[in-house]
Write a structure and sequence with these properties.
By secondary structure, this protein is an alpha+beta fold. It is about 20% helix and about 40% strand. It has two domains: about 80 residues, Elongation Factor Tu (Ef-tu), domain 3 (Beta Barrel), CATH 2.40.30; about 130 residues, Threonyl-trna Synthetase, Chain A, domain 2 (Threonyl-tRNA Synthetase, Chain A, domain 2), CATH 3.30.980.10. The protein is elongated, with a radius of gyration of 19 Å. InterPro entries: Alanyl-tRNA_Editing_Enzymes (IPR051335), Thr/Ala-tRNA-synth_IIc_edit (IPR018163), Transl_B-barrel_sf (IPR009000), tRNA_SAD (IPR012947).
């Protein structure tokens, strides 16, 4: 089974009608969805299905399993209304793409260090690298170049590279084309000002960049 992932088609949509395809206790599946499930370091959306709180959204293959509140009355083939916390989604989308820009700038300007971790929530994004020295010494270059990209308000293309296998990418013409299955904003200017901080030490030759929105 495969749910139609409307969060790729229109990541700005916050409400959607869908049909339940299966119910096993508190776990349900849908024929289509706008509720993103944790993947690639991007946090799951928060939301409801017919008013029932989504406790967990879990991706398994091409399917998404939603665990909802107990004592629900949902049945297969029921039409339901999905709603997501739009403020959370939009913050995640902006932080996600801020992290994509910083990651690509690190690769392009610092000899492509190995990325060893990443996570995006509504509070901040983080990127972890194998890195000798203090990574904050790179911040002036990263912040200057990111500011130019953000304020230039470039178009962000998001599409399938392989639709059958649900492989996607984002692209800014002249900057980068990167495989990514997250939800993306349409223009770099939506990000606004960002702040970089050096995260906690991860061990020898391991460094963390934390990214925050300032607007």
């Amino acid at each position: 089974m495969s749910v139609k992932k409307m969060f790729w088609i229109d990541p700005y949509r916050s409400e959607l009608s869908a049909k339940i395809t299966s119910v096993e206790g508190n776990i349900i599946t849908l024929d289509r969805t706008i509720v993103y499930a944790f993947s690639g370091g991007q946090a799951s959306d928060s939301g409801t299905i017919n008013g029932y709180q989504i406790i967990e959204a879990r991706k398994t293959g091409k399917e998404v399993l939603y665990t909802i509140e107990p004592n629900h009355n949902l049945q297969p083939d029921c039409e339901v209304e999905l709603k997501i916390d739009w403020n959370k989604r939009y913050k995640i989308m902006k932080l996600h793409f801020a992290a994509e820009i910083i990651l690509e700038l690190v690769y392009q300007n610092f000899n492509h260090p190995k990325k060893i971790g990443a996570n995006i929530t509504e509070e901040k994004a983080r990127l972890d690298f194998e890195w000798k020295g203090n990574i904050s010494e790179a911040f002036p270059i990263l912040e200057e170049k990111a500011r130019v990209i953000i304020r230039s308000n470039y178009d962000i293309i998001s599409d399938f590279s392989d639709e059958e296998n649900e492989e996607r990418y984002w692209e800014i013409e002249g900057f980068a084309k990167v495989p990514c299955g997250g939800t993306h904003i349409k223009k770099t200017g939506e990000i606004g000002d960002i702040l970089l901080k050096r995260g906690k030490r991860l061990g020898s030759n391991k460094e963390r960049i934390e990214i925050y929105l300032q607007s």
